[in-house]
Amino acid sequence: MTVQIERHGDILVAIADNPPVNTLNAAVRLGLKAAIEQTAADDTIRALVIACAGKTFFAGADITEFGKPPVEPLLPQLTDLIEASDKPVIAAIHGTALGGGCEVAIASHYRIAVADAKLGTPEVKLGLLPGAGGTQRLPRLAGIATALELVAKGDPIGAVRAKAAGIIDRLADGNRLLDEAIAFAGEVADIRPLPRTSERPLSPDPDAVAAFERANARRFRGYEAPAATIACVVKASETAYPEGVQFEREQFMKLIFGVQSAAQRHLFFAERKAGRIDGIADSVALRPIAKIGVVGAGTMGGGIAMNFLSAGMPVTIVETRQDALDRGTATIRGNYDATAAKGRMTGDQVAAAMALLTPTLDIVALADCDLVIEAVYEDMAVKQDIFRRLDAVCKPGAILATNTSYLDLDVIAAATARPQDVVGLHFFSPANVMKLLEVVRGAKTADDVLATAMALAKKIRKVAVVAGVCDGFIGNRMLMPRQIEAMKLLLEGATPDQVDRVHVDFGMPMGPFQMADLAGVDIGWHRDPTRIENIRDALAAEERWGQKKGAGFYDYDANRTPSPSPRVAEIIADFRERTGTPQHDVTDQEIVERTLYPMVNEGARILAEGKAQRASDIDVVWAYGYGWPPYRGGPMFWANIEGAAKIVAGLEKHGFAVAPLLREKAETGGRFN
Ligand code: 3HC
Question: 17 FRET partner, CA 20 to 30 A, in 10, 382, 530, 581?
């Protein structure tokens, strides 16, 4: 039985057991309905406790049921049934009460939770809103400001905060939740009238709503769900519950059939699928990883080290010069101090992380590390030399990883006598912040090395994707055609501002030229100011290296606010003339076709070559590594929406060679998935 019914004296207890996360699927809903009916029908029962077995209270609706024929009771019917019960219903919460799980809790008459439980309504992250009365009950329970935080942003809160906010009535001892819930039920069994959340009064608070919208305008840019969610909360304050919940239903249905929610749900499952490695059994024995080594204490090396320090793992970091080592260590400390200053870490946590760090100039100190990550600059000879030395120094079975972003992993591995132990771990800058990790599988990388790397990524809270060896792996390889085309567009008549605006309007955090200015226009530059072969060379020769110099493709003021640069316009004009490039009015649509379609094209090649395991992995790379708007699901999901035939036509119009796999999709009506 998915919902087990137990009697404890005159209290009925319904315990749902639907692993792994107790979603409220049809069987669970039916089981809960039966429990409510039994409670009503049996005069010897005074109250009902709803609890869950396993690691968590209900994690929400079962997302895989969306789009299938509905099975009654629907979740909104169930929450209304719970609240309508004439005998008290008590929710006993542990783990995470999310989405529909939170809605079941707030429809109950009382809530008791263990202190480390979390409550939240993350539906907005799936492009949805709480659709089982959550937008109507939460503000009645916690007030408009708190409700907006919860429903429109989707981040869960801890039980202690939830109690202070009026959402939880009582905290329980972690080991005695059920006993305490039953005792609580006994205490309140005869109290009438029953506290029904939907009957609580709520007054409009336009100031709180306006302040919330102002504070989050940037975060919500481009998304449909937050605005719909806010509208529901406002409605709750303006009408009685039945009208409000009707409005919530309409908004929910609109969102669930929309493209944005489909895109965000796709990413939810894509992220989880990315962790699976084709051809390697889940049961493969992992190598134990306790001690980490990092070679290079620059920006990347330091950021990489922080991931492990924050996860409580000791890190030995190696540099060749004392000043570089000191600088690197100071940067790590500075980053932690900044986090502490924002209240996101305590002083003790900073001290604990720093105590795990061992800076050294001696590579031999890496001898007992289980994993060593090389993070020096991109030079094959240098990397090979380091790997030769690591091979000599490191213990047998240690995993040797490189953070290269485009060099050939197999050539690096060949510098060692143990290429089976070599893997790529491509972190994204800033490495302590960015969620994405490309795990690069070399020709000889052993299965257990790959599986260990993927498991470790989870431990340091990264989203990891397996990539094959090729120039730029998945992310940077797809970035290249976009950057090349963006430069061509400048020569043909577009401005940096226009190209960037099209990307920002699409939902990217920034466009190609803003990105170049942030990363450094001088990256990859040949460093010869007299050799000026393209616009980028010209900028680099004038030390227009981007934000760090106050000038790049844009001019920057003291606050790093960009404005179009007359000097860059001159440089572009000069190159247009020099190259004799014919000019035309570049439309926004042309920019989309020439910068985004080629990314899809490259993605199709990557897939066909087996450099990505699945199209959804490519979407994960772009969503987590490059800020592709989640509401567009990633480039390959977007390609399905845009239509492969349209993309092929656009590519052909502009003279691109179309990837065979993309053409095949266009001809057969197939989709990337
Ligand atoms: N529906 C269907 N499957 C779900 C699910 C859900 N709501 N939540 C998790 N799963 C699945 C995952 O896909 C995964 O499956 P897999 O093993 O086959 O890959 C498995 O459960 C375990 O999930 P995680 O790997 O994510 O486990 P964690 O322990 O890391 O995290 C969690 C647990 C915090 C509960 C996390 O799974 C999560 O955030 N889930 C989504 C919660 C959510 O968004 N709830 C709202 C749903 S929408 C809703 O309720 C609508 C209502 O308002 C009407």
Answer: 10
Q: Is 363 in the pocket of ligand 1 (CB under 6 A)?
A: no
- Stated pTM of the model: 0.94
Point out which residues pair with 171 in neighbouring strands: 113
Nearest CA to ligand 1 atom 35: 59
Give CA–CA dist 263/272, Å, rounded: 15
End-to-end CA distance of the chain: 35
CB of 602 sitting under 6 A from ligand 1: no
User: Helix, strand, or coil here: 129?
Assistant: coil
How many other C-beta atoms lie within 10 A of the C-beta of residue 68? 9
**Which residues share a beta bridge with 50?**
14, 91
Q: Which two tokens stand for residue 75?
A: 């979740």
- For ligand 1, atom 54, the nearest C-alpha belongs to 131
Query: In sequence order, what are the residues at sequence separation of 6 or more whose Cβ sits closer than 8 angstroms to the Cβ of residue 579?
Result: 491
Q: Whose CA is nearest to atom 53 of ligand 1?
A: 130
pLDDT tens, 197-231? 999 999 999 999 999 999 999 999 999 999 999 99
Confidence band of 54 (pLDDT split at 50, 70, 90): very high
Peptide bond into 73 cis (omega under 30): yes
Two structure tokens written together for 17: 């057991």
Domains in the chain (CATH in brackets) are 3-256 (3.90.226.10), 292-471 (3.40.50.720), 475-493+586-610+613-673 (1.10.1040.50), 509-582 (1.10.1040.10)
SS3 98: strand
> What are 204's two structure tokens?
């409009």
Would you call 464 helix, strand, or coil by DSSP? strand
Nearest CA among 82, 73, 120, 114 for reference residue 101: 120
Give the Cα separation of 349 and 203 in Å (integer): 42
Residues designated catalytic: 103, 123
**Among the atoms of ligand 1, which is closest to the Cα of residue 61?**
50
Structure tokens at 586: 């570049």
Summarize the confidence of residues 182-205 as an average pLDDT.
Answer: 97
What are the DSSP E strand ranges found in 129-276?
A: 157-158, 170-172
- Mean residue pLDDT across the chain: 97
- Residue carrying the six token digits 């070679």: 295
Question: pLDDT tens digits, residue range 445-486?
Answer: 999 999 999 999 999 999 999 999 999 999 999 999 999 999
* 234-264 pLDDT, tens digit each: 999 999 999 999 999 999 999 999 999 999 9
- The residue nearest atom 33 of ligand 1, judged by CA position, is 21
Ligand 1 within 6 A of 394 CB?
Answer: no
**Mind listing the pLDDT tens digit for each residue in 349-366?**
999 999 999 999 999 999
Distances (CA, A) of 17 to 49, 62, 179, 387, 455: 14, 14, 18, 50, 27
Strand intervals (E) in 204-314: 292-295
User: How far is 329 from 324, CA to CA, in rounded Å?
Assistant: 9
User: Which residues lie below 8 Å from residue 478, measured CB to CB, with a gap of 6+?
Assistant: 472, 599, 602, 603, 606, 618, 622, 635
pLDDT higher than 90, residue 344: yes
